[in-house]
Amino acid sequence: MSTGSCPVDHSAMTATGGCPVSPRAAAFDPFGDAYQADPPASVRWARDEEPVFYSPEIGYWVVTRYADVKAVFRDNILFSPSIALEKITPVSDEATATLAKYDYAMNRTLVNEDEPAHMPRRRALMDPFTPERLAAHEPMVRGLAREYVDRFVDAGRVDLVDDMLWEVPLTVALHFLGVPEEDMATLREYSIAHTVNTWGRPSPEEQVAVAEAVGKFWRFAGTVVDKLRKDPSGPGWMPFSIRAQREMPDVITDSYLHSIMMAGIVAAHETTANAAANAIKLLLENRSVWEEICANPSLIPNAVEECLRHSGSVAAWRRLVTADTTIGGVPIPRGAKLLIVNSSANHDERHFDNPDEFDIRRENAAEHLTFGYGSHQCMGKNLARMELQVFLEELTSRLPHLELVPDQEFTYLPNTSFRGPDHLWVQWDPGANPERTDPGVLAKAQPMRIGEPSTRAISRTVRVESIRAAASGVLTLTLTDAQGRPLPSWSPGSHIDIEVGGLSRQYSLCGDPAETGRYRIAVLDEPDGRGGSRYIHERLREGDTLTMRGPRNHFRLALTAARYVLVAGGIGITPIIAMADALKAEGADYELHYCGRNAAATAFLGRLRDDHGEHLRVYLGSDGDRLDVAALLAEPAAGTQVYGCGPDRLLSALAEATRHWPEDALRVEHFSGTRAELDPAVEHGFSVELADSDLTVEVAPDQTVLSALRAAGIDIQSDCEEGLCGSCEATVISGDVDHRDLVLTKAERSANTLMMTCCSRATGGTLTLGL
Ligand code: HEM
Ligand code: FES
User: Fold this and answer.
1) Distance in angstroms (rounded) separating the CA atoms of residues 532 and 538
2) What PROSITE patterns does the record tag this protein with (predicted)?
C-alpha cells in the first residue's frame, strides 16, 4: 500500500495504533474479480467488521452498512453529489484531447448538481414523472414488450439482453424523453462508452476509443437538442424541459439541456436494461419462485422490488464530503470522496432479515437503496418499475417454460456502479407455448399500480390440512403451504388475512409459533356477518386451497411487564391463547379472564384448563357468571399490562376501566379500522414538508397524507390503509398531529414523533416529516 495515498495524518499516530487502513481495506479493489462477481458479498467482511473504511486503491472511503449509506444519501449538503458522474479512472492526455475534438463539455445535470441549483430544477422538471403522467406510457411499454417477444416467441432460444432487454428500455427512454428513435446499435455503443468512461477502468488504449464514442454521443445529444428546440411542442421530457427553459432560463440552462440529453438516455436506459436482465436471471435461477409468479402474477410487483434489492443494477454511488464529519463513528475529513455501496446496504442484515435470501414476499423489499434516497432519489424509478413489471408479466404469461441455457458464463462490464450481465441466454420448447392452445393468454394483463407495491398484494396459497370443531359454532382450521414450504414465523397477537368467497377476512393465529410448517386459526360461524365465516363453515373442505396474506402483528405482546392481565371474550380468545402460552413459557406472572356464553360454545376450554389451570378464570353467561371489568381493574397496578380481545362492548369496558391507569397499560386488538370518507366540509387542507426530499406536498381536505405523498413520487408502504397496521408510519419532525389511528399508544401520541399517514392529519397548517 502506498502510504502517500493514506488520508490519515501518520505523524499523529501512536506506535501501537499504526495506520488504520487494515489489510483487507488495503486489498479492496472494485475492479477486481470479487467485487465484479458479487459486490455485496465482496464487502461482507466490511459490513461486519469495518463498515466505513478507506480504500487506498481508489482513494475513496467506502461505506457499506444500510444506516450509513442512507444517512449519506439523506444529507446532500454535507455529502455533495457533485462527483457522481466524475470519471473514476483519471483520463489520459490523449483521451482528453479526443474529447476536446468534439467540444465535450458534460456538465451538471440533476444527479450531480448541488443546492441551491438542484431542487428548483428538479421541481420544475418533475411533472412528467407524476403517476398520472406515467400511466399514459403504459400502453407504449406493453406494446413494445409484446412486439419484441412476438419476434422470438417461436425461436426456442434467444439472448434476452441482445434481443429484448437492451432495446426495449432504450426505446422506452427515447419515447419518454420525446427523442426520435435513432440508430439503436449506435446508441448502444455510445451508452457503453459512457459507462466505461464514468465508472470503468479502461486501459490507456481503450480510453481513446471510449473518448471517441463519448465525443460522438455528446455531439449527437447536441444535434437532438437543437432539433427539438425548433419545435418543442411535442410530447416527452426533453420538449417539456425546453418549454420550461423559456419560463425559467436561470434554472434550466443550455448546458443542463445538452448534458441531460446525453446523461438522461443513460440514466433511463442502461439502469433499467440491466435491472431487467438481473431480475430475469435471478428468477430463473430460483425456479420455484419463477413458477410461483407464473401461477400468481399479482406477486410480480413485490418480486420486482426484491430483485432490485437483491441484485440491483446500480451497485454503488458517489458523494463528496464538504466538511469534517463522522460516518458510522469514523472521522472523515472534508474533501474525502465516498463510494457508497448501496448494493451492500441492500444485503445488510441490520435492516433486512436473512438478506442473502431471495424472498419475493419480503415486506420491506421496497426499502432497498437501489434508487438512492432523499432529494436526489431516482426520478425515473416508477417508469423503471413499470417496465420491469410489464417485462415479467409478458415473459411469465407467454413463456412460463423459459429456462436459462445451462453452463453459460455470465460476464459483466467492469465498473463500480452499473451492473447487469452482458448476455442472458434462455431456451424453451416453442411447441409448449401456452398461446398455441390458449390465445386468451395474450389478453391477460395485471392492473398497474404506479409506484412502490402494496404489501397487501403479497399473497401465498395455503392448503386446508384439517377442519375440526373447537366448540359449537367454532371450527379450527390447520393450514399448510400448498407447495410444502415452511410458513413465515409469527409472534403471539399476529393475524393472517384470508380470501374467502371473494372477501378478505382477518383471523388471529392460535397455534404454536414454534411449529413452522403449520398455522392454526379458529373461525366462529357468524350467520349475520359478511359471509366469510359462513363460507368456511358451509363450503370449505379439507384439501381445499385458500389465498392468504400476512401474518402481521398489530397486537404485540411486549415481554417487559411485571404482570399481565389477559381478557378474552368469545372468539377473541384466539390471539390471547397464543399470548398465554408465551407468558407461561416465559414463567411470567399472568392471569387469563375468559368470558363465554356457555361451555359448549366456548372454544378451547379443555385445553386452557389443562395448560393454564391456576391462571385461568372462566365466566360463562349460562352460569350467570359475568366478568366485572371495572372491579377487576379498579386498582391501577404499576408494571401491569392488560391485553384484551373480544366484542366491542368488552373493549369499551376495558378502555373505561383503565382510564385512570398509567398510559399504555391497555392494549387491545381491533379488527375494524378508522377508514371513513374524508368530508371536505369538515376537514382542512395543510402542507407537509419533507425534510429528506426537500419537497412540500399539499394535502387537500379530502385527501390522505399517504395519497398526497404517493402522488409526489414518495415511496411509503401501506397495508390496511385504515389506521390498524402501522406500515405507513412516518417520522414527525415538527407540527402537531391529529392522530386517528389505532396503532400508536397514548404515550407515543403525546411524544408526537410518529404518525400513520393513511389516516392521521395535521392539527394546524403544516407538518414536517422525516421523508
Ligand atoms: C437518479 C438508479 C431508472 C432518471 C438516480 C440515482 C440512482 C438511480 C441510484 C441517484 C440517486 C441519488 O443520488 O440519491 C436508477 C435505477 C433505475 C433507474 C436502478 C432502473 C432500475 C431511471 C429511469 C429514469 C431515471 C427510467 C428516467 C426516465 C433519473 C434521474 C435522476 C436519477 C433524472 C436524477 C435525480 C436527481 O438527482 O434529482 N437513478 N435509475 N432513472 N435517475 Fe434513475
Ligand atoms: Fe395500516 Fe396506515 S396503512 S396504519
Assistant:
1) 10
2) 2FE2S_FER_1, 2FE2S_FER_2, CYTOCHROME_P450, FAD_FR
